[in-house]
Amino acid sequence: MISKTLMAASTRPIILAILSRGEDYGYSIIQKVKDISGGNLEWTDGMIYPVLQRMEMDDLIASQWKLSGENRPRRYYTITGKGRKELSFELKGWRSVWQALNRFIEPVPAED
Amino acid sequence: MFDLEKAVKKWKKDLQRHEVFEDGLVADIELHLRDAYEAQRKTGLDEEAAFRKAVAQVGKADSIASEYDKNRLVKLDRHSPLRPARFMPALVWNYIKTALRVIRRQKAFSLINISGLAIGLAVCMLIVLWVADEWSFDRFHANAGRIYRVYRDESAAQAGSTSALTPPPMAAALKADFPDIIRATRFGYWRKPLVSFGEKKFNEENYRHADPDFFAMFTFPLLKGNPETVFADPYSVVLTESTAAKYFGKEDPMGKTLTVNNTYDVVVTGIMEDIPSNSSIRFELLSPFALLLKEFIGEDNNDNWGFNSFASYVMLADGLSSHDLDRKLDGYLKKYQDEDTDELALQPFTDIHLFSNLGHDIRGRGDIKYVWIFSVLAGFVLLIAAVNFMNLSTARSANRAKEVGLRKVVGAGRPQLIRQFFGESVLMAIFALIAALILLELLLPFFNSLSGKQLTSPWRSDPVLLLGFLGLALLTGLISGSYPALFLSSFQPIRILKGTMRSTAANPFFRKSLVIFQFSLSVFLIIGTIVISRQLSYIKSLDLGFDREHIIHLSIHGELHDKYDAIRERFLQNADVLHVTASMALPTDIQSSPGTPEWEGKDPDVKMEIKADFVDYDYFETFDIPLVEGRSFSKEYATDMETAFIVNEEAVRRMGLAKPAVGKRFGFWDIDGQIIGVMKDAHFQSLHHKIEPLVFKMFRPWLRRLYVKFRADNISGTLRSLEKTWNQMNLGYPFEYRFLDEDFEDLYRSEARLGSIFRSFAALAVFIACLGLFGLASFVAEQRTKEIGIRKVLGSSTLSIIALLNREFFRWVLIANLIAWPVAYFVMLQWIQKFAYRAKITLGIFVLSACIGLAVALVTVSVQTLKAARANPVDSLKHE
């Protein structure tokens, strides 16, 4: 389990990362998150839709209604150029946070 | 049995209770729910349990809705879902068309609105022009910042007394004693001389004398002649361009000779540009000061440190401050004259016009007080005009609510509407600016005669100023458009279009207090106008204690003085002439004489300042001044010429002489004489002053003014025959006279001017306040249309509705009066203190002003309320 704050902060980059691998729809995105994180990222499913709407408003992603394989209409989301830029920017941020964290928990060198 | 479709439907309904869930969004989540349901079923749960789990997985409708709601706020913030471009050229034309249509459709309203703003702008411009002119005084001199006037501080002798007049040797002595002073000049005159060129003869009022440094200090550009050498010879003169034209026409004036007082000649050595109207130093002819010494006051007076009769200007070296020099001047006069207790001080040249208040100062100066007062007034007028504009526009906004609603429905966001309304008010302001500039052209001549200036409209004089006015108009447009723009654009389309909109959102307190303020100002100005005009007519009606009607006076300078007796004899032969006499000074201009007189029983420590004049026989008879004791000067007493004094009652009172004062010893100017008569106190000075002690003595050599009193009938005939007599005598001077009563009117010229300025402003303020009231009345009437309709249906009469609507305005005007009265009372009390003799400020004035204000308000409001009250109730109610 991770904290609410961290979850809120990570939602958008995760969605962008998933969409950077190809178009996808809401339910599938949620499933992927659950699968990959091994259940550590517990999202309330419905909450993804306002986030997607907001990301679309911000021009990070675009959506389109399509018929899926099961002949069901689905809204498919794709990442935009702006979204890709945002993703790489976010990744840089997360990496530097991660590096900083790592450095502080490394064992203290002996001669110090 | 569990029915999935039913359950989903119920769940959807739950969702749709939140208005943020538009159909598309619901579909999104519904699909998700179904996916989740199927996934749960696959784990082996029964239908109902799987559905319950799926619903839980999707989450609470409330929290999802609140997330969507946040998005919606962001979206609103970014305007319509259509995302219109910031600027749409296609709409600009529509805006203009709408604006013009609004103006056209509401002609009366637009006219009032634009003209109100135009008048406000025009008045503001006038005042700005006037203030700019006052500030520009004397600043056109290149060295203006380095020139100082040296004045005497006489406070050691008399508290608070100063004098701009200095003795002839001072300028040169200062220049020699202080290396800081690099230039110095005297400036002054003695008497107005007669100047002639052949047959052309003029008494030159503006003939002045200055030292050669003059043209190096002041920027009076010479068109002809070399500024270094124009004054090389004492007998030279520099003329202004128009004076040169007066004497020589188109001929070249250089090197020509003018004759002064028929006795000596001066050669024209230079022609200068006419002096600009914003110059404190004024003259038409200028000769070297040396000439004045030679021909008028005697060259021995060049060293006379007691001869305080001329102005002295000095110029400091570049970059020096006057403070050091000011300190060094302490006790300077003692160096040259032991008994002189006066101190010298420097006054910046550019302070003379607005900041100077010295004794014997240049006439026609301005006053910084007025500059401030008028600046504030200009601001007020503009503010009021702008806020009225705002009020009127807002009041009319209800009419345009539908337009706003429709524009919003088809996609206009708030910013578009704000821009549109700003655009409209700026357009109106530009119309107002054009009207104001036209108005300015029309008002300038009137304003010039009022203010005694020669202002020109900004096109001609100053394009920068014009640009400033344009900016002012745009700013006014923006400010005055701000309220309607922000207010109108905040309308919610759904409420407008449903008809549930009531335009009550405007701040009524702001609106009301503004109207009350305007009316207070109007009432204040009305009271001021009445008080001033009453005081002026009081002054005019007051018995001054002497007769000034049908008396002309002529100057008898130069050779004329020697012919005084002959002139007098000839004039008296005229049957219409009653009296002829003469004196040194005009009655309006009798000055204090230095020293204290001696009298019988005087306490040696007592000092008394006394005004004195030298007169001829018949003086008291000419002015019809009664004597309360004794007699006037008479030829029958040989001693009258030598030792007789006539004093006024005030002098007797101040000296503490017991009655009879006649026969008491009295001495002045080292003459030991006696009082032969006591004249009744008369107001020779303006009524700003109390009557002061006065003494008259006969002394024929110093007579300078000749007075002729004639019969009231046939004035022009008498004047013609006097002129004929004058010309027959071949005196060599033109017959130039003035009526004495004009001189007395001049004493109150600034008050008369103030009176007419107040009158104009009062009219203006009342007009503008009416505009405000009109706006408010129309707003209120608009708002209460339905109420009025219902009242009429229920049987109210037109009259009772007018009464109902007017009652509120009545109250405001009354409040305005309550505010204005005390303020006006104290301000006018202050003003009237300037007069030693005052008309009473009575309650009647206030009541009258209140009535005027009330009547005007009533008429204004009734125009609007009558319309509302007479409207057919069917019209106002049918839309319900």
Report on the structure:
The complex is a heterodimer of chains A (112) and B (880). In chain A, a hairpin with a 5-residue loop joins β2 and β3. Chain A has helices at 4-19, 26-37, 48-57, 81-105, and strands at residues 24-25, 61-67, 73-79. Chain A has a single domain, classed as Arc Repressor Mutant, subunit A. Chain A contains four helices and three strands, in the order αβααββα. In chain A, strands 1-3-2 form a three-stranded antiparallel β-sheet. Chain A is of the alpha+beta class. The N and C termini of chain A lie far apart (36 Å). The radius of gyration of chain A is 17 Å and the shape is globular. With 880 residues, chain B is an alpha+beta fold. Chain B has four domains: 4-77; 144-365, no CATH class; 369-539 and 749-877, no CATH class; 564-730, no CATH class. Helix content of chain B is 53%, strand content 14%. Chain B contains 32 helices and 25 strands. In chain B, β9 and β10 form a beta hairpin. The longest helix of chain B has 38 residues, at 414-451. Chain B is elongated. The relative contact order of chain B is 0.09. Classes of the chains: A alpha+beta (112), B alpha+beta (880).
